[in-house]
Records
---
Amino acid sequence: GEIGLDYHYEDTDKNKQSNVFTRQLEIAEKYNKPIVVHSRDSIQDTHNILSNYKLKGSIHCFSGSVEMAKLFVKLGYKLGIGGIITYKNAKNIKEVVKNIDLSYILLETDSPYLSPEPYRGTKNDPSNIPFIAEAIADIKNVSTIDAARITTDNAIAEFDFL
């Protein structure tokens, strides 16, 4: 599952979240396990905390700036890119994908949320991954097959699938 920080709601206890997140990172580090990081309205704090650990994994449903993307990549993380990349008004994430090497990108769905076009607004599932791969391939000016192959290799390496 995901671990991380979520400051979206007003009644959020940021200190408690930070303490729990830190403990989870310590466990991941102790057992040398990759992590999937949830960061909602908390990207700078997430980066600041992660910079204290030597871990690998992904920043789930990345929605930050190009500058933040480069900082996470520098720490060794991959960026999870989902259905939002297919939305017409998703200029920010398209700029991130354009400016980050494909070797740092993972495909994800965030099921059951954030279905890609043409299924936006419906329940998402992993069968929608090809739409995400195609959108990324278009931005990177590579074939969909190459985008799928590279991002699959990224996932295999990042999460020790083999």
---
Amino acid sequence: MPDPSRTIATMKIISTNTGAPKTIDWNGKKVLTGIYKYSVAGPVFLGKEDVENDSVMDRKHHGGFDKACYLYSADHYSYWKALYPAAEMPWGMFGENLTVEGLHEGSIHIGDVFRAGEAVVQVTQPRQPCYKLGIRFGDSAVVKKFAESGFPGVYVRIIETGHVVPGDPFICIEKKNSFSVQKIFEMLYSIECSTDEILAAIDNPYLAASCRNDLLKRMNKCL
């Protein structure tokens, strides 16, 4: 079990990102997506089910109470720039609403509570990549690379709504004794499968319901 006493480094929001709907071609079909997010000059408002003025087209997999806002670490961008040196990589490249400096998934646990500007948020699950990330990168292989990277980013539910602006600190105000976001990500994608760990993970009341279902599917495949 991860050690919840580990110190979380100072974290700061360096970009707030939203996106407009965009129609893309995928395997001969027109698909509407909101993954094309870019920095906005002013504050963003974190609502209970999504970020105000942000487009969430696939409500089955994004948005809602358990995944109202997505965070990605600014620190991870150097890793991706090394893999894709010719690619433009503005903040929001991974579809994140908040780009956070100092965020590391191994030190953030399911259920941890943070203050972000006026808002209070709670960690619910790692992001699971889909084909739309490949479209954003212009390379379908990035989906597999994302799954192997160990850098999934963090989904949160909104405990208290409010505005967030770049420069706001991202402060842990309640730490939980639970698996880290990185560990949950490993349970979903690693070759090794521990039913005991998965059972412990899904028993966490703060874990997003969709992630709980995906872990159960993963466990059933391992039996």
---
Amino acid sequence: MPLQDDRAYGYGWRYSPLSIGVYRNSVTVFLAALILFIVTMPFAARLPDPGLVEALLLTLVLICGVLAGGGRRGGLALSILLALGGLSAMWGHRFWPGWVAPGIHLAFGILLLAVVAFHLLRFILRAPRVDAEVLSAGVATYLVLGLMWGLAYVFVAWIAPDAFVMKGDYVGNRPFDGFQALYFSFVTLCTIGYGDIVPAAPVAKMLAVVEGIMGVLYPSILIARLVTLYSNKPR
């Protein structure tokens, strides 16, 4: 389908009716940013200042999430506001830790990723056919769920430091945050459950249960939707 001018929505970009981002292939770029973030995190933990690398990567993910979250005026405005709030709080805490609480940027990040996941899932369910953008949106949504729950686990651990019990090689390491939260999130989302990190607080247990349910339901719904789209493809 040819690209159309999106001046009616107040943007200077060109917009495809099949795309939810502010420009074509924005979902693919967002997926690449998510993969870069996940792959780089374990190596960043070994650097002298892992917090800086984590902040830079999370900034990239949030910006790409804004671009992929919605090309319409309302969705884009909400994503921009959440991203600005989260990035301001994150970098403000880094340079002025006494003035900005670390949990603020986590809350903004969770809300932004929830908005992005909602728009991506709606795009998948409304797509008329399967193409590269739909497949990218499907994978990106799954990774967004893992990242969103990872931030939620860090937020819970910030409120209650004893919310998670770490066993084996994790004992004596730095507090539960960063890559450890991301690792636990995806292990839970994939329903692997190694048992090296165990939720202890009721809120942490509830989040882990909900994420495990999402990890089972989402692939089933996605596969069913993609099969439906492919079976309805004109011959």
